[in-house]
Design a protein that fits this description.
The protein is α/β, with parallel strands linked by helices. It has a single domain, classed as Rossmann fold (3-Layer(aba) Sandwich). It has eight helices and four strands, in the order αβαβαβαβαααα. The longest helix has 24 residues. The mean pLDDT is 96. Bound molecules: zinc ion.
Length: 269
């Protein structure tokens, strides 16, 4: 008998639906949440698909919450690749060029537009893909008479409450306490906090990676990222040994509250 690596909970994404299922869903809603993941190193304690799993889970929970609010949406397909150039120092990482990611997202949306979807919300699992996601969003709007596209950067609301959710008093980032906690919620079988080695960055370096001034966490400066390998020999930033499922669920609650509020307001009036 083969091993079960992890269990995937529904609702189904577009990949797992039939065309008839989608036709029926389109009679109730033309809104699609698009999870944009990545395949990149997050330290020895997390799988390479961490960002893909997170993006799917955020969309899954948001879809459930939105359905409860009377706002049905379709999820997916889950995009497993992003622009991960600065993680290429670690084996297994796959990166698309920004041109490829922009084109991929644009062609996925235009296909779905052709068969009836009109409102798209891009949800990242990896903030490094945000610049390309924003360009693709504008391209889809430019290529259609009436598509609406938005990019939802949940790092901004989450980073405002990091200090109240996480136990670490140091800078936790990529693959650190928060992200490891979120993976523990969905993929405990392939998440290994006990293998994590605490590694924190100099505050000045951390400030440029995800300080409050960075545009991805709500500030006004975009610092383009150079190789992570220069900052961390392990591929992650923070202390994964502090991760707890409860912390992960608190993080997801903040993210999902924000996304469902925005999607309800902007796409369902
Ligand atoms: Zn990640």
């Amino acid at each position: 008998m083969s091993d079960v690596l992890y269990v995937q909970k529904g609702p189904a994404t577009l990949t797992e639906m039939s065309s008839e299922d989608v036709r029926e869903a389109l009679t109730r809603s033309d809104v699609l949440l698009l999870p944009v993941g990545a395949t990149e190193a997050h330290g020895g304690h997390l799988p390479l698909g961490t960002d893909t799993f997170e993006a799917r889970e955020i969309c899954r929970r948001s879809a459930i919450k939105l359905a409860e609010l009377g706002c049905p949406v379709v999820i997916g397909p889950v995009i497993p690749f992003g622009t991960s150039s600065f993680h290429m120092g670690f084996p297994g990482t796959i990166t698309l060029t920004s041109e490829t990611l922009i084109r991929l997202l644009k062609e996925v949306c235009l296909s779905l537009y052709t068969t009836g979807f009109r409102k798209f919300a891009f949800v990242h699992g990896h903030d490094g893909s945000l610049p390309s996601m924003m360009v693709a969003a504008q391209d889809v709007v430019d290529a259609t008479p009436d598509a609406q596209v938005m990019c939802l950067n949940w790092l901004t609301p989450l980073s405002k409450v990091y200090a109240t959710i996480q136990t670490s008093k140091k800078g936790e980032g990529h693959g650190g306490e928060g992200e490891t906690s979120r993976l523990l919620v969905t993929h405990p079988e392939i998440t290994h906090p006990e293998r994590g080695i605490p590694h924190h960055l100099d505050p000045e370096v951390m400030r440029k990676i995800q300080g409050p001034e960075h545009i991805k966490t709500g500030g006004g400066i975009f610092y383009a990222t150079r190789s992570y390998k220069a900052h961390t020999p392990y591929g992650h930033i923070g202390d994964p040994t502090l991760a707890k499922e409860e912390t992960g669920n608190k993080g997801y609650d903040v993210i999902v509250d924000w996304i469902s509020t925005v999607v309800k307001r902007d796409y369902f009036g």
